[in-house]
Amino acid sequence: MSTLSLDGEIAVVTGGAGGIGAAAAAAYAAAGARVAVADLDLRAADAVVQRLGSEHRAYELDVRSWESVEALAAAVRDELGPATVLFNGAGIQRVVPTLQMAREDWDLVIDVNLSGSFRCCRVFGAGMVERGHGAIVNVASLTGVEFGGGGRVAYGASKSGIAGLTRTLGVEWAASGVRVNAIAPGIVSTPLIERLATEGSLDLADLASRVPAQRVGSPADVASLALLLSCPEGSYLVGQTIVLDGGLSSAGPRQTGRQVSPEQARSGQAGRGQARSRQAGPEQTRSGQAGPGQVRAESKGAAR
Questions:
Q1: What is the pTM of this model?
Q2: Which residue numbers are catalytic?
Q3: pLDDT higher than threshold 70 for residue 57
Q4: What is the DSSP letter of 217?
């Protein structure tokens, strides 16, 4: 089996300053692409580039602004070459009950997550279609794709919208040599999650016990799938939103309790609380946001 390669490709990663975005940037660079790490937090983006190597570049980006996205596309074209791969990792979340949500909160989450992804697809996709070559990977979520999530109405709507955006662009652009797909991650251990676990706010072992694969995902898991979707080996995947959750959604919201040991299965003694448990919101555990009104970028610096 051949090693996945992006030799000669120019990859743009939005939200690339940390978490899943930084992992995607690293995977693309390791596969041979020259990478543009774009984020609202330019200093953090530059720190990622310092780890990747001098052939890569860091850029400031506000996905809420058409002018910012267009300026990024022009800068990448001038300094690295025309973009051939786009990973749309910029995103934010606000956790607040619907009736308490400020109108501005709804507007902001939709503007960053859904409209921001569309802006980047539209601007970078235009060049890809013109040249007849390209791959775009959007980031959705289990929330809005497989599950609902209390207090996450804007986030769920934005991520469901990304699935629809991906299907439509995938169909429109496939004949022009441009593939558009999305990844819907489940519980992913980002640096924020790890910090909360260290502080005792989260129990990673308990979270892992709810996943059939018996572990939480890592940013590298998401990056590995993004790499496949960006390489020629993934060329027959078009318009798909692929769930990457260790089997969480396949087990169902009422079947994601701690796994029963072989001894318990033989004896029929599952133990209280082991057969079933309440469903953890995947994006809540991924971002570490439990409290109303909290805000966090999925991949750092999506919007202030």
A1: 0.83
A2: 155
A3: yes
A4: B
